[in-house]
Amino acid sequence: xxxxxxxxxxxxxxxxxxxxxxxxxxxxxxxxxxxxxxxxxxxxxxxxxxxxxxxxxxxxxxxxxxxxxxxxxxxxxxxxxxxxxxxxxxxxxxxxxxxxxxxxxxxxxxxxxxxxxxxxx
Length: 121
Known about the structure:
The chain is built from 3 helices and no strands. By secondary structure, it is mainly α. Residues 28-47 are annotated as: Disordered. It is found in: Bacterial flagellum basal body. InterPro entries: FliE.
């Protein structure tokens, strides 16, 4: 079993950042701003401070829109206004997958929070 040193942690961090940049480049997105060094643990401030919150709100809004669209299409089909059952089922599956993904993200965030809170100081 190998011991974890500060230099090995910094090396792993650098590898993760390189992989993240490569994935963002492959996805066509601009690489994010570099992360502050591990030495300082200051709270983020400035225009990029609310990026995570904004991204989370946007994702939840999109899931809500998918569910609203699915409900509207289901109600329309039940009333007999539309006969395209494939489109209705597709909308319902999209809403279901979006909701399940949201639940998984929530579970991962809660797990990470619990892990952080249980770390010794």
